[in-house]
Amino acid sequence: MKHHSIPRMATCLLAALALLSGIPAAAADLSKLRCEYRDNPLGIDAEKPRLSWVMEDGGQRAEDRGQQQSAYQVLVASSSELLAKDQGDLWDSKKVASEQSIQVEYAGKPLESRMVCHWKVRVWDKDGKASAWSKPAGWSMGLLKPDDWQAKWVKAGGDTSPWLRKEFALTAVPERAMAFVNVKGYYELYVNGRKVSDDVLAPAVAVYDKRSLYTTYDISKFLRPGTNCVGVWLGLGLLFPKELAPLARVQLDMTVGGQRVVVGTDTSWTFTSSTHTEIAWGWCGTGYEKIDARLDIAGWNEVGCTNAPVLSGRSFGWRPVEEYSGPTGIATAQSCLPNRITKVIPAVACVALDDHTVEFDFGTNLSGWFHLRLPQLEAGKTVTMHYADKRFQSVEGDDTPAGKVKPALDPKKIETANGPAYYQTNNQRTEFISAGKAGEEFCNKFNYEGFRYVIVQGLPVKPALGDAEALFIESDLEPVGSFECSNALFNRIHQVNLWTIRCLNLGGYMVDCPHRERMGYGDGQNGIDSHIMNLDASAFYAKWAIDWLDAQDPLTGKSAQYSPPNHGDPSCWFPWGGMVDVMPWKAYLYYGDRRLLERAYEPMVRYPTMYLESFYPGGGIDRQGGDGGCDWVAPNIGMTAPPGTELFINCYRVYLMDLLAKSADVLGRTDEAKRHRAKSQQLKALINTAYYKENEKLYDSDRQLSQAMPLLMGVVPDALRGSVLKRLEESILVKNKGHLDTGMLGTYFLLQSLMESGRNDLASTIINQQDFPGWGYMLSQGATTFWEQWNGSWSQIHSCYVSPGSWFYQGLAGIRPDETGPGFKKIIIRPAIVGDLTWVKCGYDSIHGKIVSNWKRDGDKLTMDVTIPANTTAVVYVPAKDEAGVTESGKPAGKVDGVKFLRMESGAAVYEVGSGQYSFKADK
To answer: At what angle do helices 645-666 and 579-591 cross, to 10 degrees?
Structure first.
C-alpha cells in the first residue's frame, strides 16, 4: 500500500525469479499482471487461477482513441528459464480472439501443491498489432489436498500466547523453502530469530467452525547449513472461542540438494509460556493483554536456547506440545491481503495528570497499537495503559449543540491533580509488568485498540513526547481513488470518510468499530461502494463474501447478523443478513467476479425466498415474527426503530429480489430470473397499495427514507414519481432545513436514490450542512473519524455513516459502473454540476485501468476532461443546453471520429466513446 512508512521485507520468491529471468521489459502497454487479484501471490489454492492485466495505452492522441484488445496469448511455465524462451510448458493459450483481460481462467495442465508458476501475456490491439510480451509475473500453489499436510495440529496447554520452537538440521542452503502456517488464532513466525514477514495480527479472521486460513511464506533467505530453529509465537485472536487456546499447524517445505525436506509441527516441538497473556474478548467486554517482561527469554527462537522463564522461583520449562485431533473445518489459503502497520503516528501532546499518570493525545482516532519507550522501572512494577476514543467534559457527559451527550457505558474515571477525568475506553487496557531492566519498551502484540488518547498509569516520571507513537494497522490495500473539488468541506468529509474506512479495514472484513464490538456486521453494506472506489478491495470482498456464505444455515436460509461470527448470536436483522446477497453482486459489478456469483447464487436465493419468506404468510408484506431490524441510529432517535420500519424492510426485500433476478440473468438462469422478477413486481404492487397515501402524495410518512426507498426500488408508478420526489424534496429542504433524517443504511439508500433520480443537488445540499445532523457537524465538533450516532453518542470510530465516499466519485464526478459491462468494461460518466461547485478532479483505477473525470465551470461554460482506459467503452453525459453547442477538442462533438452522439437526456448530451482522453466543452 502506498501509505507505508515502514519498509516491507522482500520475501517473494516469485518476484526474485522474475528479476533474474532475463526477460526484457515489455512495451509500456501491459501492466498490473494479477493472479486472483494479487501481485505474485504465494500459496494460492485456486486450482484454476484467474489472471488479469491492464492495457495502459489511454489514447493520448486522437488517432489512438478507441484502443481495444482483439486477442491475447498467455504463457505459463514451470520455470523462469522456459518462460524466457517463450515456452509455456504448463499452458500456452495460443492466440485467443477475445477482449477479455480480467478473470481469464487458467486452462493448462493440472496444477499441483507447492508448484511455482511463471507467466506473461501479450495482446493484439484493434488493428491486429501485437504488443511485446509483458514483464513476467508468477504465483505459487498452496497445499491443495488434506494429505499434503504432514504437519500435525498442536496446542500448548492452555496458554493464550505461548512460544513454540523446533530445531532441525540442513546439509546445505535450500534451493527453495516455503512455510505454510495454519493457525486458529494469531501468530508470528520466526526463523533463526528473525520474523519472516511484516504481517501483523495474522492470519485474517475466519468462520472457525467451517474453515481455518493458512498463509505461505518464502523463508529461503532465513535458512543456513547446519542447525536451524523455527519459532512460532501464538496469540488467542479476537474472534476465537473463549474456551480454547490457539491451535497451530506449521509446515516447512524445503528442497535441499534436489531432495524434499519437511519439518512440521508434532510432539517433538516444545513450548513455554511467553511474556504475554491474553484475556479473551467478548461483545462490550474488550479483552486485554497482560505483558510480564520478567518472563522474557533472549533468543527463545534461536538455535541453542535452553533457557526457560523463571518467576517467583517457578521455572516454566520447555515442554512438548500436545497433538490436537479435533479442529473443525477445512484449511484454505488466505486469499485477502494481510494486516500491516502502514503509518506511524507521533503523539501531539503528553500531559501529566498526576505524579504517576500521563495522557498521550495522538490528535486523531485510529486503530492499531501503542508503542512506548519506558523510563527505568523497578522489577515487578505494573504500568497500565487505558485507550480512549473520547474524553468527556464530566461524568454526566458533554454539552453540545445537539444536546447532552451522555456516556454510553460507564466512563473510565482517572484521578488527576485537578480532579477526576472521564474517558470512553470501552474497557480497553493493557498491563505491563517490568523486569527492572533499562531500555524497556511496551507495544501491543495480539490485540489492537481503537483510540485517540492513551492514559498511562504507574510511571515514576513523565515520559518525553517523542517516547510514544501509535502504529496504525489496516488490511494492506492499494489506493485506487482520488477526489478533490472546490468545496473545502466536501474535501474534508472525503478525507475523514476514507480515514474512517481505513480504521475499520482489518482482518479481512470491515470491522463495525475497533474497540467495543469488532465484528463484521451486515450493515457494513452501506460502505462497500465507498470502500471500493477508494481502495483495491477486490480480494478483500471475495474473502469476506465467503465468511457470509460459511455463516449461513443451509437448511433454513438464515443468514447472520455479522460474519465472521464469534458468539453464536441468534439475531438476524433482515437488512443485515442481506449482506449474503449484496456482497457477491458488488464483487461482480465492480470486479467482474462471475465465479463468486456462481458459488454464492444458491445461498443468495435461500435467504430472501426461504428465510425471509417464512415470516410473511402467503408471500405478502405483513411480517409475522422475525427480527426485522430498521434504519438504525437515525438522528434524534438513536438506537431504536424510527417510523417507517416495515416499509423499509419490505422495500429491502424488493432490493434482494432484484439482485437475484440480475444475478440469474448473468448466470444464464433465465426461468429463475423471470420468477425473481415476478416476485419483485408482486411485492412492489403490494407495497404501493399498502403504503401510498393519495391525499398526502407520499408513502407512509414524510420521513425521507419512506420516499427514497420506494423511488429507488421502483415501487412508485411512473405517474407518481414526480409528486413523490417533490415530497422528498420538501422533507429535505423544508421540514429538515436541508438536513437528512436517516440512519445507517437509510443514509446510503437516500444518497443512492437521489443520485439515481437525478437529484444530486439535494444530496449536495445535505452533505454541505455544517450543523446537526450531518458530517459537517461532526467535523465542527472535532471529529477525526465518523461516529456511531449523529449527535456523538457512543463510539467515535464507526461504520455507520461512510456512504458519502461513493457519492463523491459516482455522483459529483459521475464515475459509475455499468451492469452490462462489469468491472468497468463499460463505464458511465455522468457528473453532477451542482450547488456552487466550480470544479471536481477525480480518478479511479478500475480493474480495467484508470478512469478520470474532471470538470470545471466558468459561469455557463463547462469543460469536462475525461479519460477512458484501453479495452473499455463509456457513455458520457455532458450537461448542455443542446447537442449543437458541445465540442470535443475544439470540434463539434458529433463530428469527431470515435465520439457517437446518442441522445439528449435530462439536460445532457449523451455520447458513446471508446478509450482515450477527451475534452468536452459546452454551455450549460
So the answer is: 50
